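From the methods appendix. Each design record in this collection lists the tokenized structure first, followed by the designed amino acid sequence. Records were kept in a plain field format so they could be parsed without special tools. The example shown here is representative of the layout used throughout.

RECORD:
FOLD TOKENS (306 positions):
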């Protein structure tokens, strides 16, 4: 990919992260796959689907695409559990989360969004308990369709990155994980090897597993497990395995707080944020490169909760 296109792709990622973060609390945003990117070996891990299995998957993806297109706005409370090499274990040896957090997601089709961590707890190995991270503001992104505003609390900065015209209006659906909104059946099939993995007897949920076909996607995650609510095909939970298949992030979207096509103030929720007292406002042109994520650590995987 040419240098300029690569840099613009990194900028587009920020929109997707504002809606659906795919990193840990202190990680960096992933990269969008380049057109024509090489296939990832992980995509070959699935056995070939039977005609019946493929037909069932096709029906789901078509229905899901139709449902996504019908959603104008959505807001929801989310809960996140992060598992890594520092995660504690209970008495039976079961791996527990290293950190727990909660926050809010807001979305307006096609290119506006907000992601904000409001509360966070982290495991303290010395006291052997979860402790609130007081005095440390959580991750916070806002996108109004033309710019992304990122609060960098450790640096006491509010950064605005202006999006190139070709990235406006479509960057969310073209993001690294289009599993919440803007999911188009053809795009999903090209980028991921997928199969239905709904456990026997589960009637109110649909479980989907996806492996990346493109190397750029495989650099960000090795597998995604998604749970949709059967009644409306809205997301209920998602588990993202980091490269290597050990570290993982688990998200749950609280259906009790889910508001579809109501409850959002388009001006208040997606306007340019006010620079907090003591912070510096920095305007970026969208052409700068993004920093590389830190090395991943290993942790034991576990089943996605229902």
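DESIGN:
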């Amino acid at each position: 990919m040419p240098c300029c296109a690569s840099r613009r792709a990194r900028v587009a990622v920020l929109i997707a992260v504002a809606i659906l973060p795919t990193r840990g609390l202190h990680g960096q945003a992933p990269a969008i796959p380049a057109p024509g990117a090489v296939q990832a070996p992980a995509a070959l891990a699935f056995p070939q689907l039977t005609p019946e299995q493929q037909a069932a998957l096709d029906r789901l993806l078509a229905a899901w695409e139709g449902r996504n297109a019908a959603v104008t706005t959505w807001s929801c409370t989310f809960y996140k559990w992060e598992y890594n090499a520092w995660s504690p274990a209970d008495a039976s040896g079961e791996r527990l989360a290293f950190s727990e957090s909660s926050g809010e997601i807001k979305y307006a089709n096609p290119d506006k969004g907000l992601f904000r961590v409001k509360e966070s707890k982290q495991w303290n190995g010395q006291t052997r308990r979860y402790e609130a991270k007081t005095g440390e503001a959580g991750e916070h992104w806002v996108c109004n369709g033309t710019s992304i505003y990122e609060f960098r609390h450790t640096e006491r900065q509010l950064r605005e990155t202006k999006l190139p015209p070709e990235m406006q209006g479509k960057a969310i659906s073209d993001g690294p994980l289009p599993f919440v909104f803007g999911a188009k059946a053809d795009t999903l099939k090209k980028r991921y090897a997928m199969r239905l993995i709904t456990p026997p007897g589960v009637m109110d949920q649909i479980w989907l597993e996806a492996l990346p076909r493109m190397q750029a996607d495989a650099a960000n995650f090795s597998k995604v497990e998604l749970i949709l609510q059967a009644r409306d095909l809205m997301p209920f939970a998602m588990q993202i395995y980091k490269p290597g298949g050990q570290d993982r992030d688990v998200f749950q979207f609280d259906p009790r707080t889910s508001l579809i096509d109501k409850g959002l103030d388009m001006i208040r929720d997606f306007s340019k944020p006010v620079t907090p007292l003591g912070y510096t406002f920095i305007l970026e042109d969208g052409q700068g490169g993004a920093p590389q994520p830190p090395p991943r650590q290993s942790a034991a995987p576990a089943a996605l909760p229902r």
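APPENDIX NOTE: The chain is about 15% helix and 30% strand.
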